[in-house]
Structure formats: C-alpha cells, structure tokens
C-alpha cells in the first residue's frame, strides 16, 4: 500500500497541513523511500524562512556576501526523495525533489549523471552541506533478503552520482 500525498507539521501551531504540489511529472506513490531536505543552514535557520516564500528573508549587511555565497551554492533546493517501492512492487533508484519557494510547490525529476545506486528500499539518506552532497547508504531489496552496505554521493550542483569505495 503506497501513498503519494505530502503532509507538513507546523511546529508553531501543531497543525498538520496537506501540501498539493504542481504535478508536471507522473507522481508515483511510494513506500520505504528515503528523503532529505537540501537548504543552506543560514536560510533554514532564519526566523522568516517559509517553504512557500524565500523572498521574505532579509539578511544583515555584515553577512550579505557570505550568506549570498551559501544561498546560491545550492542550485537545486528542496525535499529530495530517493528509491523506494511503487504500487507495482517495483524497487526504484530514481531521485526527485520537491522544489520549494513558491506557493505552488513543484515536483522535479532531474537528469543525473554518473554511477547511480541500484534500486533499493529503506536506505539512509542525508544532506552534507559543507560538500553540497546527498549521501545514500545501504538499504535492502524489496524482499528484504539482500542487505546493501554500499555508499553513494550525489553532487547537488552537478547532479552527478559517485560510488564511494568502502574498505574493511
């Protein structure tokens, strides 16, 4: 049983909000996928940060050049989704992101290059801001018989996958 809806918990008011993004791609219902938010810490830690409107954020003049560098360093900001299982029980290896910053959010499937991770479910994924990469580790096949212990990086600027060698 897979779903394709998006809900956000407003931590100030403790209210769940259902998000209705613009659908310009076939939005698959997924289960067991991985996700990570990709934003600069300066932007998301700012008190005026809102996922629907980035233009409200004003930075002090002292930090303007440094902040500008960090904000523009991340070319494809948003909520990234990797892998998972679709309604037909197919294991996925694609990546997509929910582009934030406008009132109508939008799904994007970027074209990536490099050595993409094989299809999997239940992988770990996190964003490492200092290198501007997503890190994907492990996961299993759909039958949970094969446990993967491989490591992949996705360079957010170049949208290029790299497999990382792990030595015992």
Description:
With 168 residues, the protein is mainly β. The chain is built from 2 helices and 12 strands; from the N terminus they run E-E-E-E-H-H-E-E-E-E-E-E-E-E. Residues 64-72 have low confidence and may be disordered. It has helices at residues 41-44, 64-73; strands at 6-10, 15-19, 30-31, 34-38, 78-86, 91-99, 106-108, 113-114, 124-128, 133-140, 147-155, 160-164. The strands form 3 sheets. Strands 3, 4, 5, 6 and 7 form a 5-stranded antiparallel β-sheet that branches. The chain has a 5-stranded mixed β-sheet with strand order 8-12-11-10-9, with no helix packed on it. It has a two-stranded antiparallel sheet with strand order 1-2.
Summarize the structure.
With about 170 residues, the chain is mainly β. Helices cover about 10% and strands about 40% of the residues.
